[in-house]
Specification:
about 325 residues, alpha+beta, Elongation Factor Tu (Ef-tu), domain 3, Helix Hairpins, eight-stranded antiparallel sheet, four-stranded antiparallel sheet, 12 strands, about 25% strand
Length: about 325
Amino acid sequence: MDTESEKKANKSLLITMSVVMIAVIAVAIIGFLFLNKPEPILEGQVEGTTVRVSGKLPGRIACFYVSEGDTVQAGDTLVRIHSAIVEAQLTQAEAMKDVAQAQDKKIDAGTRRQIIQAAYELLQQAKAGVSITKKTYERMQNLYAEGVISEQKRDEAKAAYDAAVAAQGAAESQYSLAKSGAQSEDKESAAALVSAAGGGVEQVKALLEDSYLVAPYDGIIDQIYPQASELVATGAPIISLLKMDDRYITFNVREDHLNDFLMGSDIEVEIPALGMKKVGAKVYYIRDMGSYATWEASKSTGDWNTRTFEVKVRPSDMERLRPGMSAIIRK
């Protein structure tokens, strides 16, 4: 009797377990057939153009006028670099320019007034000598014609007169030279020295203009590399500036999905970091990423290899978008 009851109990248990298993399988099949499948998504990343601000002036960072995260406008002063060596070179170049200008002024002014006056007085003396010797020669000529003096005396007077005329010519040349001043070649040489010295000054000033570095674009200070008082070399990056108006989102898209990203087409993306905010965007760049990004299909399936393309879209609303944020497209 007990054995028969036990068999009935076991049979009931098996039936119950079979019913439960059938119910579980049925629920699983129904769930597989009727529950919603996860919506496929394509994930990308917000990026932006970053400009590294550097200068031609080697020196020491005197001070920063901005901090990381600050918003700046084009032309705002960012940092000052101090270079004692270049400033000393400027002082030297300006001194050389002053010397060249003084020399040019001296040459351009011509001969001193005292020298011109002395040459003028010598000329007047020479003219007086010509007048006197001429009169003496004329008297001697008359006396010689009357037979009063010998021919030698007349010739001596003639020689004195000729010498006086020659002295007057020499004095006139000296006076003319004194009035005309320096030669044209000397003036041109002095002017060239002034120009060269001025070029040296401008060259050093051009270097010193980079002692104050300014923002080339509107943007956000992304990163500052050195600290105040540190030395920086020529061309060393000092500040990284994120351009305000140049944000874009990059997606890596398989070739078989590329038809959804036609050049110039409008799409909608969601930004998880901004509470899944929806942002409109326009496709402006498509490029093959090369063979290294190819999806290789199994030859037994009869499928083909699929390339990957880099697609960039320009968001219509760039407010609060920061490089590194994720962006999602629901397919």
